[in-house]
Each structure stands twice: as structure tokens, then as C-alpha cells.
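Hi support team,

I've been running sequence recovery on a batch of backbones for a student project. Most finish fine, but this one hangs at about 90% for roughly twenty minutes before it completes. I'm not sure whether the input is malformed or the queue is just slow. I've pasted the C-alpha cells below so you can try to reproduce it. Let me know if you need the job ID as well.

Thanks,
M.K.
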């Protein structure tokens, strides 16, 4: 069993995702207002992001104190009853937390065997939960299975960035896409896109979608929801 995954993103007309390049959007105080209000309307209390995106919410990068000698490695669920979750990938143990919450959501990290005991002890001291999901790389199937079991998670919002979305799509783990197009053209070649899958471009697109609904929002943003109907293997 794994949670149903909805990828929710705001992009420029040309599919690029770095909102700090867009200037002020008409009708909104900040691009995050558009993103957050539309995301909240799903009523799904769990979001999942890649390391670079989670790095925007974590604490200062301080040296780690030593873990106790007898420190035991293994999955750690600090708050199994947490109502809302902020989940981040951290295969190498680079993030730092002072509390167990981001914006009121309990932090859960997906880690690998590469992370040190010092790092895990630091997470425990902050009250952050973590799940081991692979040796060197995060196995995304394992991650979703463990999240479903450990937190009784049935639905999940995948919220970027482009590399992590791309990996989830490639793994066949995106069920739906909630896409807000803001009335901006970025135009920057190489600027991060909504689904960035590394390697040479394949001969055909990564997925075929079916439009479920479409709405025009304040300021001329367009909100479209799609079901992923065919995932092309690469
Ligand atoms: N417009 C929007 O709606 C929106 C939403 C979210 C984010 N963003 C923006 O997106 C930007 C970040 O995007 P990004 O693509 O550079 O980074 P990202 O997707 O947030 O994070 C990518 C990193 O996650 C780590 N990772 C761990 N396990 C992975 C796995 N199985 N597959 C893929 N990556 C894995 C990798 O780092 P290691 O190799 O070091 O482990 C990888 O480099 C930020 O500027 C953020 O503000 C925009």
C-alpha cells in the first residue's frame, strides 16, 4: 500500500518553477500565497519535497554534537499520531532542525544508510522523525510504503522541486498533477522546470495526462488538474 500522490506546483507559462524570478504577481502579496491557498484547499495534511526545497525551511547549518556510543540505528517515529506532516528527502544528512515542525507540520525525513549517527541523534534531539529508505539513494517506493504504514498516510501532496518531482514521476509514483500556470514567461534556458529527469532527453514524453478540471484564478493564473494516465518507462 502507498499513498495517492498529487503533485502540486506553480509554474511560469514555460514550466519553470523558480518563483523568486517572477516579480509580484497581480492580485497576490507573494507567489507563495497562490501556492499555499490552492494547496490547502485539498485538505491533505502531508507534503513531500526534495532536499533543496526542504533546505529552504530548515535551521542553521551548525556542526553536529557526537551521538552516544551505543546509539541504535533504525526508523524513528517521534509522533505517530501527528495530524499534519512535512516530509523531506535527505539521503546524505545535510539538513538541520531546531524543532520538529515546519509551519506547524511534523517533520519526517527520508534518509539512507549514508547518514551518520551524529546526524540521527541530532534529529532525535529536535524531535524529527526519520525513515531509512535505501543504502545510498532513496528508494521512493520504499519511502511511500513506510510513510503509509508509519503514519497511516492515504494521500500526499508532492510539492517540488523539479528534480524530486521528476524522480517521483519516473518511478511511476505520481497519480495526479495540480498545476497552476502564473501569467509569466521565464525564458531562462536551464532554469529548473516542473519535472526534471536527468540524462539525455528520451524520445518521448514522460507521461500522458487526462484533464480533470480547469479554473481561472485571481490575477489570471490558470489552475488545471490532471490524472496521470500513462507513465512511459525510460
Ligand atoms: N514553483 C513551485 O511551485 C515550487 C515548489 C517547490 C519548490 N520550488 C523551487 O524548486 C527549487 C528546487 O528544485 P530542485 O529541482 O533544484 O531541487 P529538489 O527537487 O527540491 O531537490 C533535489 C535534491 O533532492 C535530493 N534527493 C534525494 N533523494 C532523491 C531522489 N530519490 N530523487 C531525486 N532527488 C533526490 C537530491 O540531492 P542529493 O543528491 O544531494 O541527495 C537532489 O539534488 C527551489 O528553488 C524551490 O524554491 C518551486
Amino acid at each position: 500500500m502507498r499513498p495517492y500522490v498529487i503533485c502540486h506546483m506553480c509554474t511560469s507559462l514555460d514550466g519553470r518553477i523558480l518563483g523568486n524570478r517572477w516579480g509580484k504577481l497581480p492580485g497576490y502579496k507573494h507567489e507563495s500565497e497562490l501556492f499555499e491557498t490552492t494547496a490547502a484547499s485539498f485538505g491533505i495534511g502531508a507534503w513531500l519535497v526534495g532536499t533543496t526545497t526542504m533546505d529552504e525551511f530548515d535551521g542553521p547549518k551548525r556542526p553536529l554534537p557526537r551521538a552516544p556510543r551505543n546509539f541504535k540505528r533504525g526508523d524513528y517515529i517521534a509522533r505517530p499520531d501527528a495530524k499534519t506532516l512535512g516530509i523531506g528527502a535527505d539521503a546524505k544528512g545535510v539538513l538541520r532542525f531546531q524543532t520538529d515542525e515546519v509551519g506547524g507540520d511534523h517533520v519526517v525525513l527520508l534518509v539512507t544508510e549514508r547518514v551518520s549517527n551524529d546526524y540521527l541523534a541530532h534529529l532525535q534531539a529536535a524531535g524529527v522523525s526519520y525513515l531509512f529508505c535505501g543504502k545510498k539513494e532513496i528508494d521512493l517506493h520504499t519511502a511511500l510504503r513506510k510513510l503509509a504504514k508509519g503514519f497511516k498516510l492515504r494521500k500526499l501532496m508532492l510539492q517540488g522541486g523539479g528534480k524530486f518531482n521528476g524522480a517521483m514521476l519516473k518511478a511511476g509514483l505520481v497519480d495526479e498533477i495540480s498545476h497552476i500556470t502564473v501569467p509569466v514567461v521565464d525564458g531562462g534556458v536551464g532554469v529548473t522546470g516542473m519535472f526534471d529527469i536527468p540524462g539525455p532527453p528520451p524520445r518521448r514524453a514522460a507521461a500522458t495526462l487526462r484533464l480533470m478540471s480547469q479554473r481561472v484564478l485571481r490575477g489570471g493564473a490558470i489552475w488545471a488538474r490532471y490524472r496521470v494516465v500513462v507513465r512511459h518507462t525510460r
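--
Follow-up from support: It reproduced on our side and the slowdown came from queue contention, not your input. Residues 140-151 form the longest helix (12 residues). No action needed from you.
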